[in-house]
Amino acid sequence: AQSVTQLGSHVSVSEGALVLLRCNYSSSVPPYLFWYVQYPNQGLQLLLKYTSAATLVKGINGFEAEFKKSETSFHLTKPSAHMSDAAEYFCAVSGVQSSASKIIFGSGTRLSIRP
Amino acid sequence: NAGVMQNPRHLVRRRGQEARLRCSPMKGHSHVYWYRQLPEEGLKFMVYLQKENIIDESGMPKERFSAEFPKEGPSILRIQQVVRGDSAAYFCASSPGGRDTQYFGPGTRLTVL
Question: Of A10, A44, A84, A115, which has the highest C-beta tally within 10 A?
Fold first, then answer.
């Protein structure tokens, strides 16, 4: 079975500060891992995706995430937060097997940016 | 290239009525997924369909919920005899193939009075 755990339902950082959103996964097979962002009353937008190529994945809007198998983690980072980064962020996992196309989402982390 | 389209964006139903949610995938995408997001929660997988076939419905409630993706036209998620607990945002995603990136629509927010 696959699952993801997002540590911290709410994270608040100052504008210009480092953003770190934590995600740990559980998977019995090599996983695909994702980070999605959701702005209020909107759908989900893919930030980045890990598919077993490079362990450091660069995404849109300056975000990146590092896959660490030994720690079963896929934390999302951004060096300098902007006010426009305020949103809900979801970590997610799916399997590489063709039968496992569904995505399992974490419960989300709400990111707030202080001026 | 238009993204995934969902309509209506907002739907209000009274208890016992039927809700029909529509999803038009991106052009060239033949795989559709439905997810439900309850208030203050993450998205939960409901069903995965290809044209005229249900591939995985492991997340669908056993009663009152059904989904289809006909040869022509949008995918439909149908909820019969809605109850207050069905109030949620329902998101559709599409992909070209089963292992490809899923692109999400804006969602339909269902409110049951």
Answer: A44
CA distances from B111 to A38, B68, B87 (A): 20, 22, 5
Question: Would the pLDDT of A51 be above 90?
Answer: no
Q: Report CB contact under 8 Å: B56, A98.
A: no
The token pair that represents A58 in the structure block: 């660069």
Cα–Cα distance, B47 to A101 (Å, whole number): 10
Q: What is the number of other CB atoms lying within 10 angstroms of the CB of residue A56? A: 9
Query: In which band, very low, low, confident or very high, does the pLDDT at A101 lie, cut at 50, 70 and 90?
Result: confident
Closest chain B residue to A50 measured between Cα atoms? Answer: B101
Question: pLDDT tens-digit profile of B73-91?
Answer: 999 999 999 999 999 999 9
